[in-house]
Write a structure and sequence with these properties.
Blueprint: E1 9-14, H1 21-24, E2 58-60, H2 71-84, E3 88-92, E4 94-99, E5 112-116, E6 139-144, E7 149-157
Antiparallel strand pairs: 1-2, 1-7, 3-6, 4-5, 6-7
């Protein structure tokens, strides 16, 4: 859930991934890999990377009564399948931790250690402006090796502009350049 209005997070999932990363990721060692210097061959950039058509994103509430109609259910469906089929999950975001004596604030495991900002990280304004950058967007790529299938899950906030400069800052306010292509 976004802290900005509108609060529904934008969501898009696809098995038609257009990223050089899918050819490089299987060659990397398991565990955390730092992506340095905005490496476009491995990093994600929703604006520059031509990963998907932003008009296909849909706003979803974090939780809503009913079947398959909220963000948690959409993501959970893919993660459950990945676990059942022993797929490899690649999470793109910013690392936090390890925090030896501090439990995770959401799941309560120790040490606190993980990845956050698994969403678009550019076009932000106000208090999130410092998070802006290019080739540093978050997301989830799931590799089902047996089928040679890749699923991508991409998230963004409706308050983010899709017209960004070379530092990831909004060139045009979101009211004039949103995910629907209103620019």
């Amino acid at each position: 859930k976004s802290q900005s209005y509108p609060s529904e997070v934008l969501y898009f999932a696809s098995n038609n991934i257009r990223s050089e990363a899918i050819h490089i990721l299987p060659t990397l060692p398991f565990g955390f890999t730092e992506v340095k210097n905005n490496e476009p061959k491995v990093a994600l950039d929703y604006v520059r990377g031509n990963l998907f058509d932003s008009k296909q994103m849909i706003p979803l509430p974090p939780e809503k009564a009913g079947a398959d109609n909220d963000l948690n259910e959409k993501i959970e469906r893919y993660i459950k399948r990945a676990m059942e089929e022993k797929a490899i999950i690649y999470a793109f975001g910013e690392r936090w931790g390890p925090e030896e004596n501090t439990p995770d604030s959401y799941f309560h495991f120790k040490p606190g250690n993980g990845i956050h900002d698994i969403h678009m990280n550019q076009g932000n304004v106000e208090k999130w402006k410092a998070d802006n950058g290019i080739w540093q967007d978050g997301g989830i790529l799931i590799h089902f090796e047996k089928e040679e299938e890749w699923i991508g899950i991409f998230l963004a906030f409706q308050s983010q502009s899709w017209c960004t400069d070379e530092e990831g800052h909004a060139r045009v306010p979101v009211e004039h350049c949103d995910y629907k292509g209103n620019n």
